[in-house]
Structures are given as C-alpha cells and as structure tokens.
Design brief:
By secondary structure, the protein is of the alpha/beta class. It has helices at 3-6, 22-33, 45-59, 73-87, 110-138, 161-181, 199-202, 208-217, 230-237, and strands spanning 13-17, 37-42, 63-67, 92-95, 141-146, 186-193, 248-251. Strands 3-2-1-4-5-6-7 form a seven-stranded parallel β-sheet, with helices on both faces. The chain binds nicotinamide-adenine-dinucleotide. It comes from Priestia veravalensis.
Length: 258
Amino acid sequence: MGIIEKMRLDEKKIFVTGGARGIGKSVAIAFAEAGADVAIVDLDFEAAQKTAAELKEHHEVETIAIEADVTKPEDVDNMIEKILNVFGRIDVAFCNAGICMNVPAEEMTFNQWKKVIDINLTGVFLTAQAAGKIMLKQGGGSIINTASMSGHIVNVPQPQCSYNASKAGVIQLTKSLAVEWATRNVRVNCISPGYMGTELTLNSPSLLPLIEQWNQMAPLKRMGRPEELQSICVYLAGDTSSFTTGADFVVDGAFTCI
Ligand code: NAD
C-alpha cells in the first residue's frame, strides 16, 4: 500500500468540537474526504446539523450533529454517550472549540478571564480526558488539540492575555497527556495556527482594523486559510503518525519566526 493510501481514515470514528464552522468545519471536511465518520459537536446545534448534513451529502460517510458546551462535564459525557451509541468507538478526537477576547489586562473582569480559560483550556481538558478514557479502554487513539501561535508569542497590538495564557496551557496539557498515555497507544498532539481567516477573526469587529496590520507584519503578507490546516490534521489522525505524540505543529506562515 502506498503512503497516500496508508494516510486514509476509512473506518475511523472521529469527533470535532467547534466543528460547525471555521477551522473545525474545514478539518471535519478533510476527515470525511479521507473516509472517516464524523461527529460535529458545537454549541450552535443548527450550524452543526448543517455541517453534518453537508459532509454526509458530499462524502458518503456517517455523520452526527451533537449540541454540547465543552465547558460542562455533563454535556461532554452526553456527547461521548451519543457518539458511542451511533459509532460504537472513538478513534480520533479533535478538541478545537475556542473563543478569543481582546481586553486590556487591567480592565478584564473575573468572568471575562474565566470564560476564555473555561472554553479554551478546561474545555480541551474535559473533551480530551473523556475521549482518552474511551481510547485507553479501546487500546488506542489519536487526540488533536487546537492551541495557537498565541501560545508561543504575545500578539500585538491587541491585548489578549487570557487567550495567550489559555493557548500556552493547551500546549503544555497536550505534552502532559502525551507522556501519561504514551505506552497505552493514545497519542496526543496539538496544532498552533497563526492568523486564519474564519468567523472568529473576520467577524470580530474589534479585530477587523487589525487584519491589515497583521498582514503587513506577516512574512507571507496574508492570513492563513482554514483548509491549510487540513493535511496536518489528517496526518495526525491517521496511522502513519504512529511515532508522533506530544508534538506541537506551528502552522503560521513563519509569523512566530519574526
Ligand atoms: P470560529 O469562531 O469560526 O468557530 C468556533 C466554533 O466553536 C463555533 O462554531 C462555536 O459555536 C464553537 N464553540 C464556541 N464555544 C463553544 C463551547 N463552549 N462548546 C462547544 N462549541 C463552542 O473559530 P475558529 O477560528 O474556527 O477557531 C477554532 C479554534 O482555532 C479555536 O480554538 C481558536 O482559538 C483556534 N485558533 C484560531 C485562529 C484564527 O485565527 N482563526 C488562530 C489560532 C487558533
């Protein structure tokens, strides 16, 4: 079998949090193209249903739409139960749901701080932990977490200390889980995207004036496109990445190199 064939995801059962739109949706499309059955998990159930239906229609795979708030342990448990009821197993978890908030540190309220940490860091822990428990029982699996280049550098000029801290946390959480579960065949990696054109960035009024500035700073002079994260996630989900765990893939067009 050639390498491209070996990278296919036929028979794999995958869930994607924040899968209704943006990076999650784009990567979910790639998983389906590669042959996997995909559960789209999102707070926005209507959008999740639309994405799940699109995937099923275009790629002839099984899909499920699940409404869940990744910050709520009961929602995460319910999500796992629904996936197991329909798919019977979980081979890959893409823990991707996240939000961004730009507020100067001295003005940030406790609730604003907590919201970002709850979704971006605690949400990734809860979903990775829940998936990991199933994968440990099954004898293996692959978890991919979405961190950010903001876990490596302090972006300017927007003030986003909670976001930066949450994403640095995701990188270290990823490495910790990878080491804990290494001998039990559960691999845990993360991706650290640079600025990508998604609803999170393009629809945030506070970010719009900054986009031109970021593009000027960026070595490639542009933002990334969500589809430019597809191949790394298909690689991490599949069996050819069997020696890759605890890794953090920075996909930022060299932004963190400047
Ligand atoms: P997006 O806003 O386009 O999509 C995020 C999705 O997550 C939405 O569908 C939203 O409903 C869902 N979501 C939010 N909170 C949730 C919760 N509590 N439970 C379940 N679902 C929830 O965002 P995106 O740009 O696609 O970002 C996806 C991930 O990528 C985030 O973790 C983000 O921090 C990260 N990221 C984005 C960029 C970028 O420039 N867009 C760069 C680096 C990292």
